[in-house]
Amino acid sequence: MSFVPGQPVTAVVQRIEIQKLRQEENLILGFSIGGGIDQDPGQNPFSEDKSDKGIYVTRISSGGPAELAGLRIGDKIMQVNGWDMTMVTHDDARKKLTKKKEDVVRLLVTRKSLEEAIQMMSR
Amino acid sequence: MDNESQYSGYSYKSSHSRSSRKHRWVTRIQFCNFIYLFLVLFFALTDLNIIFPFAVQDDNWGETTTVVTGTSEHSISNEDLTRVTKDLEESTPLECKRFVGPALGGCLSFFALVTPLAFLILPQVLWRDTLEPCNTPCEGLYVSLAFKLLVLLISSWALFLRPPRATLPRFFVFRCLLMVLVFLFVASYWLFYGVRVLEQKEKDYRGIVEYAASLVDALLFIQYLALVLLEVRHLQPAFCLKVVRSTDGASKFYNVGHLSIQRAAVWVLDRYYSDFPVYNPALLNLPKSILSKKMTGFKVYSLDENTTNNSTGQSRAMIAAAARRRDNSHNEYYYEEAEMDRRIRKRKARLVVAVEEAFTHIKRLHEDEAASSPKHPREVMDPREAAQAIFAPMARAMQKYLRTTRQQAFHSMESILTHLQFCITHNMTPKAFLERYLTPGPTMQYQQQNGRGRQWTLVSEEPVTSALRQGLVFSLRRLDFSLVVTVTPLPFLRLGEEFIDPKSHKFVMRLQSETSV
């Protein structure tokens, strides 16, 4: 999941589509994110490579839309509705996820178990 | 004496500072001087050994060495042997050799200093009438001559007039070079003087005075050269010497400059006497109880000459089998060490308490107290008596402690009393008194002051007048131990520069935020 500058990033991703839930005034997705290029990557408990500054899912509220859609804790979000999430600041990521005009977010997430599953299948 | 010329001494001039031995020194020196002066000078100039120290080899050395073996019927034990040699060492008479060098140097420099004055005085004495008078320029030259001679005298006294501290096995190359230089110089000046001035009865007195002044100038420059070669050159560190004592592994690292091996050896020995803890032969061996277990291994004796090839194979197999046996001696060594530590600490505690208590029995009497109480006359003691009075309660604890730490050979009762007296006189606390016994001090602490000197042997594979260089190893041997010295050059340092703007020190907080969406 780490990247080499200048080389394209390759990862095995899962498409997850989350329907936002309307709660009073806000549209919530039911998870929390951490990470970003302006954050300290060494504190990230979910990343394998401690210099990875991507956006990670740090908490999922149980029963929320994200859990229902199949998002898991520790997932790294690669794209949100086509917007890249591997090289964004924390605030940019938040903005892309909480656009008021969108009801649904389509995420591309990756996790280690996906990589392993692919490798086992290819053997 | 013909293939190893002895040259000695460390200083340029002889020492007049030891007044107590002056009389004996002077008569001995006159005697020795008379015999050695011209002989040694002659040999010094013509002997091959200055130029090629190993030019003349002695091939008969094997036939003249004597060996002390332990198998003769009249053998003596090892302790007797060491005691005999120690007695011999302490009773060797003050050697003539030690003072030959300084005496020679002294004569030469006296000769050199007197020469300009002789140059000036001889014409005045011999043909005063025919000399051209020269007034002001000559007086100026007289003054400058006088001051330069004074400076020469004072700096020679300051730099070179020191008692010799060591006798080197071979010529001290730089010093010989300088003495030869001075001698040739002065001799050539005398030669020219004799031919041009004395024979022809030169009338130009000013020229003679200028000639003498030029000699003094040249002597000043030779002294500058001597200063640089003998005193300054070896000050900048260039090598790192590792000195290890062969018996117990005590080691130290020293930085020295460019020296020859023999000078480096003297330098190391100077530092040895004050840095290294004293050599204690009683501390060396593992207790017999541990070693005896090891000795009951297999022993293979092969007395048959023919089976030399097979025996090595066999003995190797035996040794391997012995090694595979379960060997617990390390266990015993560990427990024995722990037990010994505990014992030492217990004895030390008893000693400290005993000494503290003993010191509370006396106190210093001030002058105003002396006349105050005629009703309670206390016995007033001098330090010696006071020391004897308080020694008794601590004597037993002290003796037991010294015996446990195996230091009893270094401290006699008399020396302990003297030290106690010294401490009382200087208002020292019990801890200060005990400092001498609780840690083994440097060798200097246990030396008796006598003028005999210590005999060390320099063992080296290279000629001892060669300069230090990387990878050189030499050792300094004494009767029962030796110091092995290894030379490594100090690393070359490439120092770079980095400028940091004081305004460039800025900090930010580390962010780790978590947002819920």
TrEMBL record, chain A:
It is a peripheral membrane protein. It is found in: Cell membrane; Cytoplasm; Nucleus. It comes from the Eukaryota. GO terms for molecular function: protein kinase binding. Pfam families: PDZ (PF00595). One of its GO terms (cellular component) is basolateral plasma membrane. Coiled coil: none annotated. Residues 15-112 form the PDZ domain. InterPro entries: PDZ, PDZ_sf, Synaptic_Scaffolding_LAP-MAGUK. Gene3D superfamilies: 2.30.42.10. Its main location: membrane. Keywords: Acetylation, Cell membrane, Cytoplasm, Membrane, Nucleus, Phosphoprotein, Wnt signaling pathway. GO terms for biological process: cell-cell adhesion; convergent extension involved in axis elongation; establishment or maintenance of epithelial cell apical/basal polarity; neurotransmitter receptor transport postsynaptic membrane to endosome; neurotransmitter receptor transport, endosome to postsynaptic membrane; receptor clustering; regulation of signal transduction; Wnt signaling pathway. This is Tax1-binding protein 3.
UniProtKB/TrEMBL annotation, chain B:
InterPro entries: VANGL. The chain crosses the membrane at residues 34-56, 99-121, 141-160, 172-192, 212-232. The keyword Transferase does not apply. Keywords: Cell membrane, Membrane, Transmembrane, Transmembrane helix. It is a multi-pass membrane protein. One of its GO terms (cellular component) is plasma membrane. It is found in: Cell membrane. The keyword Amino-acid biosynthesis does not apply. Its main location: membrane. Pfam families: Strabismus. Belongs to the Vang family. This is Vang-like protein. It comes from Amphilophus citrinellus.
